[in-house]
Amino acid sequence: MRDPAQLSEPGLIPVRPRGRMWPVIVLSLVGFNFSVVGGTAYLASTDNSFAVEPDLYLEARGWDKHRRVLAESVRLGWRCELALNAAGTSTDSLALTLADADGQPISDANVTVEIFHMAYPRVRHTLAPRSNGNGAYVVELPPVPAGMLECRITVRRGVSCFLSTRSIVNPGANSGSPS
Questions:
Q1: Disulfide engineering: 81 pairs with which of 53, 55, 74, 97, CB 3.0-4.6 Å?
Q2: What is the pLDDT of residues 56-73, one digit of tens each?
Q3: CATH of 57-170, one of 3.30.470.20, 2.40.70.10, 2.40.160.20, 2.60.40.10
Q4: What is the pTM of this model?
Q5: Which DSSP string do the residues of 31-98 spell out, in sequence order?
């Protein structure tokens, strides 16, 4: 039998066999899908502006406990003031002032601060400020980019735990690229 694609009679249109293009189309779509997924996975794993809250699953499981700690923080009435001391050098510092509900300074607490840039939430720094007395705590900042910084403060004193989240603006004196 003659191949229909090889008809040479004038006026007849060659007919191509059907079904040979479908595997190519399907394989092309699968290849495109792998490319999109691979590109997304690459961006998600290398770009510091893409982030997921660390230990989100554990945090979700302990949400009731977290809410109790937040309620205790409100009940304690402690106040926390933050200030970024931009010295214009590479040794900028974060100053923290703590006072109880009566306005008395808290100098004997264990304080930790988790700080990160809002645009680069994957790059986080956990700092342990030292007490200078009279409720004042200070810690040297690592290089952080200019812009809005989120500070998550945890204060432990005896059995009491105080949580606070504050945002401050880094004017850029101690700017560093996120790494």
A1: 97
A2: 888 888 888 889 989 999
A3: 2.60.40.10
A4: 0.69
A5: HHHHHHHHHHHHHHHH-TT----TTHHHHHHTHHHHHHHHHHHHHHT-EEEEEEE--SSS--EEEEEE
